[in-house]
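Input:
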Amino acid sequence: MPELPEITCRSAEMKKELTGKMISEIEVIQPKSLNISENEFKSALVGAEILDVYPRGKWIITNTSQGWLLINLGMGGELLHTQTSQKPEKRRLSLEFDDNSSLCINFWWFGYAHFIPISALNSHAMTAKLGPNALEMSPDQLQFLLKGKRGALKTFMLDQSKIAGIGNAYIHDILWFAYLHPLRVIDSLDNEDIARLFQAIKDGLLPSIKKGGAFYEVNLYGEKGGFSMEDIFIGYKEGKDCPRCGTTIEKIKTGSTSSFICPSCQKY
DNA sequence: CGGGCTGTTGACTC
DNA sequence: AGAGTCAACAGCCC
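Output:
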């Protein structure tokens, strides 16, 4: 479940390791994850030099001398930088570079690797419609985004077209930090609620970025992230005590997803 | 061994 | 606009 912290870390690692390298060959094992045919994809990117890599919500955007490579790991996956002679068995796609290293992409379930030509990045609908990156909003911007909305707060927070980068792993602690229930209706939020929510997004995401992402994901070198269960306050801790008030943490159904809440700190 | 759960996104419906 | 459902089909847990 790669969310903003993991995507931020992977992008930084890719930028560090891959900038300046040239793609010499591409191997496609799962053509379904591409937005164009396998042959088109290969001829578009073979020969390209990596210029820059940066995060955009849950997407990793790579700028090359021949166009854009956009990667979304979907519900989980690995990006590994290895020697081309030592590629991992499990991979759906790999980019081989001119220095005999490779970037191997594995999706656990499914994911996307899309190519977009130079000067056409805004034609990519899935990234063009994303809201602001969760950590690059101002408090005013968050207030503006919430204004006039009626649904449940959690649905809004996970809607990538509203705010980009938050998923179902980090949302539990974010809402708990803000003392807000996932099913709280948006138009009942006052300025103080929104101010707490703004700070809670930072408190929920920044510690994981500092630790290299969540423990259940690995970095480009195959090492697990340092953000562990002990760094999580209430997410996935059903039956344990709320670290703030001692009330038993509950797991509840919120639409199609589950939520972990402290029923005392987070009143509906 | 098998069934349930998990997590993202788009497409689609009402 | 928002809520609901489905499809894409791996791996872990019990």
